[in-house]
Design brief:
By secondary structure, the protein is mostly helical. The protein has helices spanning 2-22, 28-74, 83-105. It comes from Triplophysa rosa.
Length: 108
């Protein structure tokens, strides 16, 4: 019985050693490849994050642009500060008043 156990253990150890001998030893080139792959992954992750941030910033800027355009359309124009506009506005008011009075005189 002891010999059967010894032979079984010997066979297991021999197969483990032969399997280990078939493995490639870890050399510096495979370590460099692993480092390159991890660096590429990190760079692509950073690039993806930056891309997402830039997209959200562009979306926010576009929404702000649309809101500003909407506010500009709803604001009245401040042409009252221009002296030429005041003169033109006064003339229009006078002509309108003259027209109203001329129509009103006909009903008396």
């Amino acid at each position: 019985m002891n010999t059967a156990v010894f032979v079984t253990v010997f066979i297991c150890l021999a197969s483990a050693l032969s399997a280990g001998a078939g493995c490639q030893p870890v050399d510096s080139s495979s370590i460099n490849d692993i480092q390159k792959l991890s660096r590429r992954y990190a760079e692509s992750t950073i690039a993806s994050d930056i891309s997402k941030i830039m997209d959200s910033m562009v979306q926010k800027n576009f929404v702000n642009f649309l809101l500003n355009q909407r506010e500009k359309k709803s604001e009245p124009t401040l042409l009252g500060d221009d002296p030429d506009y005041r003169i033109f506005n006064d003339l229009l008011k006078k002509e309108f008043m003259v027209w109203v009075h001329s129509k009103g005189d006909g009903f008396k």
